[in-house]
Structure formats: C-alpha cells, structure tokens
From TrEMBL:
InterPro entries from the UniProt entry: Calcineurin-like_PHP (IPR004843), Metallo-depent_PP-like (IPR029052), PGAP5/Cdc1/Ted1 (IPR033308)
Cellular component GO terms, alphabetical: endoplasmic reticulum; membrane
Organism: Pichia membranifaciens NRRL Y-2026
A family per Pfam: Metallophos
Primary localization class, coarse: membrane
Record has Chaperone as a keyword: no
Protein name: Calcineurin-like phosphoesterase domain-containing protein
Membrane topology: Multi-pass membrane protein
C-alpha cells in the first residue's frame, strides 16, 4: 500500500529543498559575508613598531559613529508592519557586523561618537527605556563575556538635542543611561577627551552649558603632558572650499555648512577656535555627518604659536544613514612614540612626517554592502514560489499538458488548470513560516 501520493512526495521534497536553500542563504549573509568583509580589516600598526619588541604595547579602540537606532518616529506615515521590518532589518545589519568586528578584531575599547538612538531627545521616559534596552541588546549583550571597555558618554543631537534645544532633563537622562560626558580617560600615553559640544552651544540655560564650559576651562589651565585625542559629536568649523574631505568621502560635494531644527553641521567658527585652544588636541574624531571626512585644523594657541590638529569625521555604522558603505574607525594607541619611516598621504597630498615620532594611528574598516542580502532573499522567495507551484502540479496531468499542447499559451493554461491550488497555498504558508523561523534563529532576537 502506498503511504504517500506522488503529490505528497513532491511537496515534502519541495519543502526540504526550500529549507536547505534558505538555510544556506541565511548562513552566507548572517555569518560568512560579515566575516569576509571584516577579514580585510585590522587595527593598523606603524611599520617599524616591532623595533622596540616588548617595550611597545598597543591599545585597540573601535570607534563607532551614529548607529542611530531607528524607531517609531523615524519614518512618519510608514505602515506599522513595514516600520517594524525596517527597524529589525537595520538593527540586524548593525548587529551582524558588530559581532564580526568583535570576533575578528577583538577590540579592547569600544567608543561611540553619539546619536546612539534616533529619538532620544524628545521621547518619554518609558519609550526611552525601551530604546535603551534595544541598544543594550545590539551592542552590550554580544560583549558580556569579553573584557571590553564601553565608552558611550559622548552625546549626539538625536540623543539630547542641539544647542538651545538641549534640556536639563534630556542631558541628565542621557548621563544616567550612557554616562556623563566632559571627562578625560587616560590610556597609557594618551588623554582621551570626551566633550559634549552640543550643550556647550546652549545660550539660554546656563545649567546646560556650564559643565562643558567648566570642563574646557579646566583643560585650558592644565598642562598638556600626553597626546590628546578629542572625541565629540558635531565636527569643528572648517572652510569646505579649502579644507576638502579627501577621496574617502562618498559625496563629491563640499562638506555642508548648514543648520536647522535641532541640528547644525559644524560648531561655530569662534567656538571651534576656543575648543582648539583649550584642548590642544593632536587628533579629533567626530560623528554626525555620516560620511567620511579628514581635514587639518590650523590655529594659533594662546602663546601665538601655530598648531595643527587632525580632524576625522567617522562614517556611520548604520545602513539607514544615506551612505553606500557604512564603516567604523580602528584606532591603535601606542604606549610610547614610534618613529615614522615614511610620509603620510593626506587628501592626495604628501604630509612631511618621515622621521617624526607618533604614538597613534588609525584606519577605516568597511562593513558589508547594505541591501544585497534583501535582494537575495526576495529573489529566492520568487524562485521558491515557482518551485512550490511546479511541485503542486499533479504528475500525470503535468505530462499530459506537455504532450497535448503545442503552444505556450495552451501549455500554461493547462498547467494552471491542473495545479492543486489548495496544496500550493498550504505549502506556501508552511514554507514561509519555516523560513521566517529560520531567519529568526539566525538573526538578532
């Protein structure tokens, strides 16, 4: 006695093949693709650093800018199911690349440059807490069993607002969850300076601006004994026609100098000069712009001596920030200066650095190309539907249709008549649910 009809056998085979295809595709895009992208990255080293052997030690800092986890307010008017899908897709993109970065590069410190959430500045406390837990799930949970230092206390304008839009409540709430800004973290031969330059620009509430201004005054009066690296959110002012960003920037337009509701693309010129003179940074890492930019800030210090600071805008890590290739920055800190054996190339121009000593270096690490996985999933879903449809055509009638019809029109008409539509619908639902369950197992949840 036959326990399974040919159609049942076809359906079982179709489901098995379908699940194998989905399993393979999920494995490729959730694990293999991020691994291959990150495998091209490494924390940069100065060429002759091994000259000092055991005397040299390094600290590896992973810099992440603008993850800006999208929420229910990011895309007004978008249907709730589509918004939920968008949130999940973006969170998962960040998560899978972040896990690959942790596994392959093993950073010792992870430093964020603000805009951790998309609507942190105006959300209710209850909603804020939910979004904070999302941040924990994406970034903190994967690193719980690792010896990693998290530095999340640089606020962005989406976290607390901009200038006069910053309130005491938004500032205090950010500090309670992510840490208070305006502080120095010493790492070996370096002072990592975390500045809230958003509150600094507030002109209507002294309680908001005072902590940042007091911090700058302290730095101004403190003797500089170590290399200073400044971390902030909004970049310092520059002349975009003169201080060009370089070839690594995606946009071919000059750096935008503009402002609007709760944002400004660069700190005012006078305030920028005051920050430079107070901090006297060797390098500055900023976020906010989402695209890469590298310039040199030239200024005269309080004694009239000309100084230079390297300024870097770090690309956003998110696929939803309008750039083709999200990225992170890899910063290597040395415990003692290492002699440079060659000149640096900055924005296609040679900078005379050969023979000088440097105790830090950095490089960009590009993440996986966004949307490639989505296109692949849609393509497989279409192929899967066709495969399921064919498997639901009764075997005998399938051959009769091919033999008795000599035109494509008659063939397809007969094929559609002979399909078991109820079986096709059931099989499509079952396979769809199984594929979704597989995706759930593979991705962030």
């Amino acid at each position: 006695m036959r326990l399974l009809s040919p159609l049942s056998s076809n359906k079982s085979r179709a489901t098995l093949v379908s699940m194998l295809c989905w399993f393979t595709l999920f494995t490729i895009f959730q694990f293999i693709d991020p691994f291959l992208s990150i495998s091209h990255c490494s924390f940069p080293r100065i060429a002759n650093d091994l000259e000092y052997d055991s005397e040299v030690s390094i600290s590896k800092v992973l810099i992440i800018a603008d993850p800006q986890l999208i929420d229910n307010h990011t895309y007004p008017g978008r249907l709730s199911p589509l918004l939920s899908l968008s949130k999940f897709t973006v969170d998962n993109y960040i998560y899978k690349n972040y896990v690959a970065l942790m596994n392959e590069l093993k950073p010792q410190t992870i430093l964020f440059l603000g805009d951790l959430l998309d609507n942190g500045r105006e959300s209710s406390d209850e909603y804020y807490e939910n979004e904070y837990q999302r941040f924990i799930k994406v970034f903190v949970d994967p690193a719980r069993n690792r010896e990693v230092e998290f530095i999340t206390s640089v606020p962005g304008n989406h976290d607390i607002g901009w200038a006069d839009g910053v309130t005491e409540h938004s500032l205090e709430r950010f500090g309670q969850h992510f840490g208070h800004p305006n502080k120095i973290i010493q790492k070996g031969n370096h002072d990592l300076i975390l500045l809230d330059n958003l509150s600094l620009m507030n002109t209507v509430d002294k309680k908001v601006a005072e902590p940042a201004q007091s911090f700058l005054n302290t730095l101004r009066e403190t003797k500089k004994e170590r290399t200073r690296i400044l971390f902030d959110h909004v970049t310092l002012w520059r002349d975009p026609e003169v201080q060009v960003c370089g070839a690594s920037r995606e946009s071919k337009k000059p750096f935008p100098i503009s402002k609007g509701y709760q944002y400004q693309t660069a700190i005012d010129e006078e305030a920028s000069l005051d920050i430079l003179r107070a901090v006297r940074p060797d390098a500055i890492f900023s976020g906010d712009d989402h695209d890469y930019c590298q310039v040199v800030h030239s200024y005269r210090d309080s004694k009239g001596k000309e100084q230079r600071s390297l300024g870097v805008n770090v690309k956003s890590m998110s696929m939803a920030m309008g750039i083709k290739r999200p990225a992170v920055e890899l910063l290597t800190l040395y415990n003692k200066p290492v002699k440079l054996e060659k000149d640096w190339i900055l924005n296609n121009q040679v900078v005379k650095t050969k023979g000088e000593f440097l105790d830090y270096t950095f490089d960009t690490c590009y993440l996986t190309k966004p949307y490639v996985d989505i296109v692949a999933y849609v393509f497989l879903a279409i192929i899967d539907a066709i495969w399921l449809f064919i498997s639901c055509v009764e075997r005998k009638k399938r051959y009769v249709s091919i033999a008795d019809n000599y035109s494509y029109d008659n063939f397809f008409e007969s094929l559609f008549k002979n399909v078991n539509w109820l079986a096709f619908i059931k099989l499509s639902v079952i396979n769809g649910l199984l594929a979704m369950f597989l995706y759930y197992l593979f991705t962030l949840h």
